[in-house]
Amino acid sequence: MNMFRFLGDMTHLFSVLVLLLKIHTIKSCAGISLKTQELYAIVFATRYLDLFTDYISLYNTVMKLVYLGSSLSIVWYMRRHKLVRRSYDKDQDTFRHHFLILPCLILALLINEKFTFMEVMWAFSLYLEAVAILPQLVLLQRTRNIDNLTGQYVFLLGAYRSFYILNWIYRYFTEVHYVHWITWISGLVQTLLYGDFFYYYFHSWKNNEKLQLPA
Amino acid sequence: PNVENMHDEL
Questions:
Q1: Residue A75 is part of which domain span?
Q2: A27 part of a folded domain
Q3: Which residues of B fall within a CB distance of 8 Å from A5?
Q4: Which of A19, A44, A47, A97 has a CA between 20 and 30 Å from the CA of residue A127?
């Protein structure tokens, strides 16, 4: 495993843990989109079905379980915790995230590495991950509030995407059979969406004003 | 399983 991949995994892990820790500590999830968090939970649940069938390494298995556990915990906090759920911006978090799921599923049925249940689910999770940030973007646009979504969370997600792209480039040039078009393209789309987000985040930070995304 | 075709990334 190369350093880019490892750093990508770590920043991804920290982004989820920072969010979970924050919610746990301050008992508030203001500014966080439950829709996006639910999509991430679905992403992990459908991608890691191979926990039961393939063993790759102890590292992979443990990381998968931690990603699953932490993302499900965030959803649990936001839905069920007495105090946390009160701080949830329900009226603002209106993105119809269910409408993302069906197109991703259809796309996965059409474009996959192999037409098996596991591969279709794997492709579905990649497509869904690429667009899962959208409800969060809409919520930010509505509330125009970046105070509650810490810079750390944004920074870590961006670092995760960047390191994974470096990892793919590195692996492409150092390994013989390493070609994963589906992963790469959906990863690029995801990074572009984040890039859009960063642009406005840093722009507003620089001008010391509240975040304002174009309609 | 065929290692080359396995998804070894997260």
A1: 3-206
A2: yes
A3: 9
A4: A19
Q: Cβ distance A43 to A132 under 8 Å?
A: yes
Q: What is the amino acid identity at position B5? A: N
Which residues in B have their CB inside 8 Å of a CB on A? 1, 4-10
Total count of domains within chain A: 1
> What ipTM describes this predicted complex?
0.81
Contact B10 A113 (CB under 8 A): no
Whether B9 contacts A62, CB under 8 Å = no
Hey, are the CB atoms on A60 and B5 less than 8 Å from each other? no
pLDDT of residue B1: 39
For residue A215, being part of any structural domain is answered with: no
Number of DSSP helices (H) and strands (E) in chain B, helices first: 0, 0
- The string of pLDDT tens digits covering residues A108-137 is 999 999 999 999 999 999 999 999 999 988
Question: CA A194: distance to chain centroid?
Answer: 10
- The shortest CB-CB distance from B7 to any of A67, A122, A167 is to A122
Is residue A197 one of the residues assigned to a domain? yes
CA distance B2 to chain A (A): 10
